[in-house]
């Protein structure tokens, strides 16, 4: 039984038996993410003091400027995951293609695939606003002992065995699921230990917060425009409140606690929206569903999308169930 204030280490051990696969490897994988999160947290927390803010001078495959902390977090997570003999492949927002890991174990029994957004919301680093890390875990589909292929990474979100995020906010939290609900752990920085502070997190079924970059309003599909107008109309508990941090992790975290909807729809500028299916939308969708919320591309369930590319983008709507369903209603009405 999980208890409030138990450490993440204790929680992982006690809950190992409830994992779908109980060999202990998934526990070790979560443990390595816990370690990398602490290392990255330490660096993020010093961001104003040392020379780690600003761009690294490179762009990633998606043409976005890489920030120094993007590169730092990417290196730390990859290094930490490589160091344990559990993961056979990693894909990251900051890497052009996937990385195949040669196990030190000669039988090469590593089964797990990890996809990460090492630093989410990186435009917020320089201004001391919350950022995060997102991760998604699958079992490989190709035979154990052979090099991983793209097929191991292009799995539907519904095949995830674990997913989670770290939010480097006013406090640092690690929130994750292995398919048995969502639990949140807060880091006590004085002793470097995560404690279970938010057991069994759930989205309220309804909410009064909508989160969207309204600067893109004129480019949105008519259904989204109509829904935003509905949010702003006076009736019942409306108008809703608008809150947009610009870090998916932070916006999601707030909405899960308070009740709300997050939207990054497609627009006339970007036909598939901005967020990446494999390491942003799917892990957040898995968490949302495990927390009694919902994630959709406006019409269909995110976790049912058959991926075709590593860095594929999709429209992303996520949050309190009734709010997401209302948005889908508006989308259908103008189809
Ligand atoms: P990343 O920093 O990993 O590239 O992700 C940024 C994402 C997401 O976190 C956020 O919700 C969204 O981009 C903000 O985009 P806009 O600035 O276009 O609103
Ligand atoms: Mn991101
Ligand atoms: Mn990122």
TrEMBL record:
<dbReference type="GO" id="GO:0006094">
    <property type="term" value="P:gluconeogenesis"/>
</dbReference>
<feature type="binding site">
    <location>
        <position position="119"/>
    </location>
    <ligand>
        <name>Mg(2+) 1</name>
    </ligand>
</feature>
<dbReference type="Pfam" id="PF00316">
    <property type="entry name" value="FBPase"/>
</dbReference>
<dbReference type="GO" id="GO:0006000">
    <property type="term" value="P:fructose metabolic process"/>
</dbReference>
<dbReference type="GO" id="GO:0005829">
    <property type="term" value="C:cytosol"/>
</dbReference>
<feature type="domain" description="Fructose-1-6-bisphosphatase class I N-terminal">
    <location>
        <begin position="7"/>
        <end position="199"/>
    </location>
</feature>
<comment type="subunit">
    <text>Homotetramer.</text>
</comment>
<feature type="binding site">
    <location>
        <position position="93"/>
    </location>
    <ligand>
        <name>Mg(2+) 1</name>
    </ligand>
</feature>
<dbReference type="GO" id="GO:0005986">
    <property type="term" value="P:sucrose biosynthetic process"/>
</dbReference>
<keyword id="KW-0119">Carbohydrate metabolism</keyword>
<dbReference type="InterPro" id="IPR033391">
    <property type="entry name" value="FBPase_N"/>
</dbReference>
<dbReference type="GO" id="GO:0042132">
    <property type="term" value="F:fructose 1,6-bisphosphate 1-phosphatase activity"/>
</dbReference>
<feature type="binding site">
    <location>
        <position position="117"/>
    </location>
    <ligand>
        <name>Mg(2+) 2</name>
    </ligand>
</feature>
<keyword id="KW-0460">Magnesium</keyword>
<comment type="similarity">
    <text>Belongs to the FBPase class 1 family.</text>
</comment>
<dbReference type="InterPro" id="IPR028343">
    <property type="entry name" value="FBPtase"/>
</dbReference>
<feature type="binding site">
    <location>
        <position position="117"/>
    </location>
    <ligand>
        <name>Mg(2+) 1</name>
    </ligand>
</feature>
<protein>
    <recommendedName>
        <fullName>Fructose-1,6-bisphosphatase class 1</fullName>
        <ecNumber>3.1.3.11</ecNumber>
    </recommendedName>
</protein>
<dbReference type="GO" id="GO:0000287">
    <property type="term" value="F:magnesium ion binding"/>
</dbReference>
<dbReference type="InterPro" id="IPR020548">
    <property type="entry name" value="Fructose_bisphosphatase_AS"/>
</dbReference>
<dbReference type="GO" id="GO:0030388">
    <property type="term" value="P:fructose 1,6-bisphosphate metabolic process"/>
</dbReference>
<feature type="binding site">
    <location>
        <position position="280"/>
    </location>
    <ligand>
        <name>Mg(2+) 2</name>
    </ligand>
</feature>
<dbReference type="InterPro" id="IPR000146">
    <property type="entry name" value="FBPase_class-1"/>
</dbReference>
<keyword id="KW-0378">Hydrolase</keyword>
<dbReference type="Pfam" id="PF18913">
    <property type="entry name" value="FBPase_C"/>
</dbReference>
<feature type="binding site">
    <location>
        <position position="213"/>
    </location>
    <ligand>
        <name>substrate</name>
    </ligand>
</feature>
<feature type="binding site">
    <location>
        <position position="274"/>
    </location>
    <ligand>
        <name>substrate</name>
    </ligand>
</feature>
<feature type="binding site">
    <location>
        <begin position="120"/>
        <end position="123"/>
    </location>
    <ligand>
        <name>substrate</name>
    </ligand>
</feature>
<feature type="domain" description="Fructose-1-6-bisphosphatase class 1 C-terminal">
    <location>
        <begin position="205"/>
        <end position="331"/>
    </location>
</feature>
<dbReference type="InterPro" id="IPR044015">
    <property type="entry name" value="FBPase_C_dom"/>
</dbReference>
<keyword id="KW-0479">Metal-binding</keyword>
<dbReference type="GO" id="GO:0006002">
    <property type="term" value="P:fructose 6-phosphate metabolic process"/>
</dbReference>
<comment type="pathway">
    <text>Carbohydrate biosynthesis; Calvin cycle.</text>
</comment>
<feature type="binding site">
    <location>
        <position position="244"/>
    </location>
    <ligand>
        <name>substrate</name>
    </ligand>
</feature>
<feature type="binding site">
    <location>
        <position position="120"/>
    </location>
    <ligand>
        <name>Mg(2+) 2</name>
    </ligand>
</feature>
<keyword id="KW-0963">Cytoplasm</keyword>
